[in-house]
Amino acid sequence: MTVDHKYQKKYTNALIDSTSPYLLQHAHNPVNWQPWSEAALKQAEQEGKLLLVSIGYAACHWCHVMEHESFEDEAVAEIMNKHFVCIKVDREERPDIDHYYMSAVQLMMQQGGWPLNVIALPNGQPIWGGTYFPKESWMHNLKAVFEFYQKEPAKTKQYAQELKEGIRNISLGAELEEEIAVDASLLKTGVENWKTRFDMEDGGRVGAPKFPMPVNLDFLLYYAHLKKDDDALEFVKLTLDKMARGGIYDHVGGGFARYSVDDKWKVPHFEKMLYDNGQLLSIYSKAFQQFKSHEFKCVVYEIADWLEREMTDESGAFYSSLDADSEGEEGKFYVWQKHELKEVIDTDFELFKAYYNINKKGFWENGNYILLRDQSDENFAETNDLSLHRLQLLVGNWKYKLLKKRAERVRPGLDDKTLSSWNALVIIGLIDAYKAFNDSQFLRLALRNAEFLQQEQIKKSGKVYHSWKKGRSTIDGFLEDYALLIQAFLALFETTAEERWLKLARRLTDYVFDHFYDSNKGLFYFSGKDAGSAIGNHFQNEDNVIPAANSVMANNLHRLYLILGKPDYLTVVKKMLLNVTPHFTKYPMAYANWGSLMLKLTEPFYEVVVCGINSNLLMAEMKNEYHPNILWAHSSKESKVPILQNRFHLEEDLIYVCKDGECHLPTNSPEAARKLILS
Question: ∠ CA 157-160-161 to the nearest 5 degrees?
Fold first, then answer.
């Protein structure tokens, strides 16, 4: 008889069959956790119990702390099991549930964050919530809420109903009081207001903590490039320099941590998220095109190497994150004792010490140092009487030695589930890297991942799954999955000229209109309209670390309008924008991806079409420069795609440059085409 060892624990709850590593982390808690389901809500109704919904994610440090202090404690579990139906949610798997309860906690005048803990009525309506609680405080609050509900059920239900209305207003937005048109002055006012929040000493937003905000940097680079705004351009470069040199960047293995806890990018919150690094691939690639910085090129290559080395499944899928903790300590995998560094680096240690600040500046705690730099390689080489080439060889050798040494350590936990939306962000980043460097390594990784997504996560109907792990696709896709996949497939079409990617993007777009679009509001819901749920639906309009699903969809429709010649798409885009233009001047950082769309509508935006048997070579020659205001298309054969139709000639390669529906006479010279774009 074979024994299943996963059940040979003192406690095993209903999370044991989950695919989420976060849920599996809690599968042997004494708490009777269940995954979110209609069955769990029905159980609460039948037993007359409140719901206790606890939300987090695998790489979350304070989630681990609360688990150890409270959820592994039998006395705490006894209270939770007695009075509540306890539900665990992976916020990355269920961003819809996370949004609903995060909105509730913020309406209760609480600080949002993770772990997110909410008590709700059996129908899912929240009545109390907060984030991390120490054990004694957690037990006290559980008892207090339960007792209040027992004594005052009518008051509790009235409060829950009022809170539900508040969440609905946040989620679906107020009616528009006035329509504000998009124009150049709106953008200028928004950017000028934004500049008051620029940290011109250390980059990023003034104060701590500091988050990489690639959506913001992408818009500001686009705006500064077109408007020749030197202040904004300087801010973007400063921020990217400081991030790449700071402790938030993994100088040994590549990739960025989620944020730094200080205002100098020094001490990271050590978890590494796929969505950050996919987008940072994009912005550093574009910034290289703009600034021609060798440092930015190194960052791109090192992120890509890290992704392939540590974050890629054998199927081509990308994993979700690496934990901040290893061996129960935050950052232990990434920091160094001075004696370790001395032993590994050996004869070059004094130079290494100066380069990476193994001094008061790089000191963290408990004898540990965080590697960080405070000047360019050019300046360091000059100061230390080295050639730049010699320094770069040394640095490469140091990184190789440290990476080899670090491989002996206990690795941080890996969240090995795959999310469609986050994978799409990496495809987009890899395509931007390919455009910048014309290195097939990037395209190869992007295509492998796209093939995986097409095969495993997309049905013939156009329906998308959100999550995948070990051959198992789960959870109906959200708007962010569809929108980012469409963006990724359009990028692949523009790059490879393979029309199958355009067809796939069109199929997903049709599905989104059928299942997510609200014609009255002119926006797309985050969850499908037919997705029955105890929690409400919402429109995701505000850009954050990840761009808002509606802003991505609007940019996609603008692109499809140009490729397919469908003016109806442009009409939808303009209606979508009316929902955000009233807010842009006051909160431009929350609408940055919308700002990029506004630039496309208010500034010159070009279609550059290259047709001919050598079209791919001509495209590669032109695309390595920074041109954010160009839609690219090419073909080495006849095509019925509207933007390519009747433009192919067997005898010659021709470049067509068009703007606002008007096209110049075709040319066969990339230089002549550049002049038309820059004129």
Answer: 90
Per-residue pLDDT tens over the stretch 262-301:
999 999 999 999 999 999 999 999 999 999 999 999 999 9
Residue range 31-59: mean pLDDT, rounded: 95
Task: Look up residue 472 and give its two tokens.
Answer: 């198992």
Helices (H), 438-540: 440-457, 479-496, 499-516
Pairing verdict, β 116-120 and 50-56: antiparallel
Of 244, 265, 266, whose CA–CA distance to 255 is shortest?
Answer: 244
DSSP conformation letters of 324-362: SEETTEETTTT-EEHHHHHHHHGGGHHHHHHHTTTTTTT
Q: What are residue 116's DSSP bridge partners?
A: 55
Query: Closest by alpha carbon to 187, among 584, 579, 630, 601?
Result: 584
Cα–Cα distances in Å, from 243 out to 202, 213, 231, 265, 310?
Answer: 9, 11, 18, 6, 21
Give dist(CA 337, CA 342) in Å, integer: 9
User: Which one is the CATH code of 184-333+415-602: 1.50.10.10, 3.50.50.60, 2.40.50.100, 1.10.760.10?
Assistant: 1.50.10.10
What is 5-172's CATH number? Answer: 3.40.30.10
Give the bridge partners for 336, in sequence order.
Answer: 369
Alpha carbons 656 and 157: distance in angstroms, whole number = 64
Pull the structure tokens for residue 393: 């060889």
Structure tokens at 367: 């004898």
Largest interatomic CA distance in the chain: 86
Question: Buried (b) or exposed (e) across 180-206, using 16+ Cβ within 10 A?
Answer: bebeeebbeebbeebeeebbeebbbbe
Q: Which two tokens stand for residue 231?
A: 């202040």
CA distances 267 to 131, 178, 262, Å, are 23, 45, 6
Number of residues in the chain = 679
3-state percent helix, strand, coil for the chain, nearest multiple of 5:
50, 15, 35
Q: What is the pLDDT of residues 579-595, one digit of tens each?
A: 999 999 999 999 999 99
Kindly give the interhelix angle for 615-623 and 670-678, rounded to the nearest 10 degrees: 40
Q: Are 94 and 50 in contact (CB under 8 A)?
A: no
Give mean pLDDT, residues 231-259. 98
Q: Cis omega (within 30 of 0) on the bond before 122?
A: no
CA–CA dist 423, 485 (Å, integer) = 8
- Coil, strand or helix at 279: helix
pLDDT band, very low/low/confident/very high, at 84 (cuts 50, 70, 90): very high
Q: How many CA atoms lie within 13 A of 343 on its CB side?
A: 8
Query: Which strands make up the sheet holding 630-635, listed edge to edge?
Result: 630-635, 606-611, 654-659, 662-663
Strand segments (E) across 121-193: 126-130
Using CA atoms in the order 230, 231, 233, 238, what is the torsion angle rounded to 10 degrees? 130
How many of the other CB atoms lie within 10 Å of CB of 363? 15
Does CATH number 1.10.10 belong to domain 336-408? yes
Peptide bond into 212 cis (omega under 30): no
